[in-house]
Every structure is written in C-alpha cells, then in structure tokens.
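Format notes (please read before filing issues)

Several people have asked whether sequences and structure tokens are stored in separate files. They are not. Every record keeps both together, in the order shown below: the sequence lines, then the token lines. Line labels are part of the format and must not be stripped during preprocessing.
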Amino acid sequence: MPKKYFTSKIVKLVVTMIICALLIFFNPSGIMNPVRGIFLTVALPFQKVFYGASQKIGETAAFLTSISEIKKDNAELSRENNSLVAQVASLQEEKNQNASLREQLGLIPKNKFSLAGGFVIGQDPAGSEGWVVFDKGEKDGISAGMAVIVDNGILVGKVDEVYATSSKISLLTNPSSAINVTDVETGAKGIIRGEYGLGLVMDMVTQADVLNVGDTIITSGLGSNIPRGLLVGKVKEVKVSDDRLFQKAVVVSRVKYSNLDTVFVIK
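Then the structure lines:
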C-alpha cells in the first residue's frame, strides 16, 4: 500500500510539472510572465554556457572544414606545380637538344650532303657498342644503308634497320660491319670492321700496299652508298694477318662510341 501511494504521488508530480512547463512555454494571456521571468533568469547562465559551447563547436567545425579545403587546394597546387616543373624540364631539354644540333651541324660539311640530324635514344644492352637507335625513321626519309656521321664528317656507322619513327644504326665497331676504306697518304685499300679488344681494324690490305702509323683512313666510296671522303680514323698499329697474305691496321677514331649523342644521317 505505501508503495502504491508513493507511485501515485510521483505520477501527480510529473503531470503537474508537465502542465506547469506547458503553461510557462505557451504563456496564455501572459498570466505566467512572472514565473516565466524567474525561469529565464535561472536558466540564463546555463543558456549562455550552452550558447558559447555551440559557438565554439561551430567555429571548430568550420576550422576543420577549412583545413580540409586547404589540404585539398594544396594537393591540387602541388600537382599543378609538378606538372609545370615537368613541362619546364621538357622545354629545357628540347632547348638543349636544339642547341646541340645547331652546334654539331655547324661542324658538318652540310654543303656536300643532305642531312637528317637527331639523337641516340637507345643502345646495345650488352654494352659492346655494336649498335644504337636513332630517333629518325621512314617518315624522315631514312633508309637502310645510309651513312651515319658526327661532327666534322666522321663516319660512325650506317643505317641497318628502319622503322616508322626510328632507325637502328650498326656502328663501325660492330664485328659484322664492313665498309670499304682507303689510306689517304698511300692509297692502300681495305675494309674497316669492328674487332673486340681492338676497336676498329682495317683488314684485307694486300702485302703490296703500304700502311704507315699515323696515316689517315677515309671511306673509299666503293661497293656501297657510303660516300667517299668520310673520315674513319688514324692508323695506330700495322700488323700482318694470321695467314700472312694480307696486312691489317688498328685504326683509332676520334669518336668515343659509348658517348654518342647527336648523329647525322646522310640522305
């Protein structure tokens, strides 16, 4: 019985509080103004605290949002900056290449030849200096067998294979290479080819011909479309062939084949 009585009192209290709250909130005819004033006065400190907290929370949320937007903007700016840096580097490289071409072309006897200049973009992965890839091809009028030179008309090889936008150049140092040459001073004729360990060798020179250390070796223009008069190198050493039927000479080129960069094809 006491428990039931206690529960009834709680219900009445709750109902009374709800009615009072409704009267204060809706305030019909203003009859609850005094009570409402007291309530607002009591609630004011709490309201200020809650309002201030809500303001801080709003500012914090806005700050975090702005940080997120700044990070996004920075990431976008970073991407754009990287793109610009890459473009500048590409333009600088193109400028350097054009300058190199102009410089090399100034040393080429261009009044004698029609030339296609460009750059080495690949080489023999074995490191034997047997061949390189040139960045000009069929669309540039390149065809197999054309002579390849560097500054001052020094022969370095000939075009071996041609593709649409590139070509494979077989260098003089390639053992499979064979180009007719002659000794400027004595007129001795032979074939220049690559030989591992020696570099360039002028082979198949008859015993009747004369070869001297220091002689200049040039292309003879025989047996191919390689023009006469292209410099190959200087005689460093003269030997007799193993069968003792011919002479051969070790020829030193002024070109370091491993450092080939800019080359010209004689069209």
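For reference, the curators noted about this record: The helical segments are 2-26, 33-105. The chain has two domains: 2-59, 106-267.
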